[in-house]
TrEMBL record:
Pathway: Amino-acid biosynthesis; L-leucine biosynthesis; L-leucine from 3-methyl-2-oxobutanoate: step 2/4. It comes from Pilibacter termitis. The keyword NADP does not apply. It catalyses: (2R,3S)-3-isopropylmalate = (2S)-2-isopropylmalate. This is 3-isopropylmalate dehydratase small subunit. Belongs to the LeuD family. LeuD type 1 subfamily. The gene is leuD. GO terms for cellular component: 3-isopropylmalate dehydratase complex. Gene3D superfamilies: Aconitase, domain 4. GO terms for biological process: L-leucine biosynthetic process. The keyword Nucleotide-binding does not apply. InterPro entries: 3-IsopropMal_deHydase_ssu, Aconitase/3IPM_dehydase_swvl, AconitaseA/IPMdHydase_ssu_swvl, IPMI_Swivel, LeuD. Pfam families: Aconitase_C (PF00694).
Length: 195
């Protein structure tokens, strides 16, 4: 998993509440168990018109938002089914962080497991962030737990265990490998009960 310490990026506002996993990645694209290839289908029904061309009214299709790595959105983000593909799609598209009012529990944990930082901020702060000029980069500093913008500095909370994992780029396998020497020592010295 890629380490997350500081993210400097422009933002894209999508201030809808209750964006569910079916809207994030529709069911017809869930044919792979690999974590890549889903970004092109993220928000598919909103991003594309019936003829397959981009919807010019959808914010992610605005030229100034194409390289944004921070999504600012509404309440209850990631509700619906428990598909981990939703987090995969967002990461594969290129987002590093989401700033929302709240998240579904399952999506929140899936995001963290995939190196995506889900930040919770109140509506008034998110509304201010959504008004930033499209070319303004903001700084998310996970170590300091701050978001720095031209409008001011905003603080956010995160569980210390998840913070440690993200800052060090540790998924569950990475955590296990931190004990590799102890595991090897145990395996070399464990008693043999068969002959």
């Amino acid at each position: 998993m890629e380490k997350f310490t500081v993210c400097m990026s422009t933002t894209v506002p999508l201030m809808n509440d209750n964006i569910d996993t079916d809207q994030i990645i529709p069911k017809q694209f869930l044919k792979s168990t690999e974590k890549t290839g889903f970004g092109q289908h993220m928000f598919f029904e909103w991003r594309y018109l019936d003829d397959g061309t981009e919807n010019p009214e959808f914010p992610l299709n605005f030229e100034q938002h194409r390289n944004a790595q921070i999504l600012i959105t509404g309440d209850n983000f990631g509700s619906g089914s428990s598909r981990e593909h939703a987090a995969w799609a967002i990461v594969d598209y290129g987002f590093r962080a989401i700033i929302a009012g709240s998240y579904s529990d399952i999506f929140y944990n899936n995001a963290l497991k995939n190196g995506l930082l889900p930040i919770i901020l109140p509506l008034d702060e998110r509304e201010k962030l959504a008004t930033l000029p499209s070319n303004e980069e903001i700084e998310i500093n996970l170590i300091e737990q701050t978001i720095t913008t031209s409008l001011g500095v905003y603080e956010f909370e995160i569980d210390e265990t998840w913070k440690h994992k993200l800052v060090n780029g540790l998924d569950d396998i990475g955590i296990t490998l931190e004990y590799e020497d102890l595991i090897r020592e145990y395996e070399e010295n464990r008693p043999v009960y068969w002959r």
